[in-house]
Specification:
This protein has about 160 residues and is of the alpha+beta class. It has a domain of about 110 residues: Gcn5-related N-acetyltransferase (GNAT) (Aminopeptidase). About 35% of the residues lie in helices and about 35% in strands. It contains five helices and seven strands. A seven-stranded mixed β-sheet has the order 1-2-3-4-5-7-6, sandwiched between helices. The longest helix is centred in the first third of the chain and has 17 residues.
Length: about 160
């Protein structure tokens, strides 16, 4: 039996907090605090609206499930600089180009809102190297490493791209 096609959409809908939480949990790379933050940003954006909350979402629907999503927005106190706050793809949808499709759509959305640069942060642990490789494959450059940022032994890697 074939899977339903994947469709990108924006804006969020009422079912998204639970669906995005389930996706982030299933991804298997985020801790409990990160999962809670992912849901919180969706709830806040639904309550306040994208412009007021400062978060813009792209959702990749596949049937009744979220196959992936991206969240980006302006970085406060900067000029035309945006951050990719979240990008996640379900394990079942990986290796099919959905991550790159979401990244390209997020870049286009950020550019349409005036962004000239997009930044993304990642853990600097050894098990985060696939994330680093993904950002590099999408044209991002490693701008900085901050040792022991998240906790001892878990630094921060900051990637960026001029749009």
């Amino acid at each position: 039996m074939s899977r339903p096609p994947i469709r990108l959409r924006s804006p969020l809908c009422a079912a998204d907090p639970a669906r995005i939480e389930a996706l982030v949990r299933a991804a298997g790379v985020f801790n409990a605090a990160e999962i809670a933050i992912a849901r919180e940003l969706v709830v806040e954006t639904l309550a306040r609206g994208e412009d007021a909350a400062g978060y813009h979402f792209l959702i990749a629907d596949q049937g009744d499930a979220v196959a992936g999503y991206a969240c980006y927005g302006p970085i406060p106190a900067t000029e035309n600089r945006f951050e990719l706050y979240w990008i996640a793809v379900s394990p079942a949808a990986r290796r099919g180009g959905l991550g790159q499709q979401l990244m390209a759509a997020a870049e286009m959305g950020a550019r349409a809102k005036g962004a000239t640069h997009l930044f993304a942060e990642a853990s600097d642990r050894a098990d985060s190297q696939p994330v680093h490789a993904f950002y590099r494959a999408c044209g991002y450059t490693l701008h900085a490493r901050v040792p022991d940022y998240h906790t001892d032994g878990d630094g921060l890697a900051i990637f960026g791209k001029r749009l």
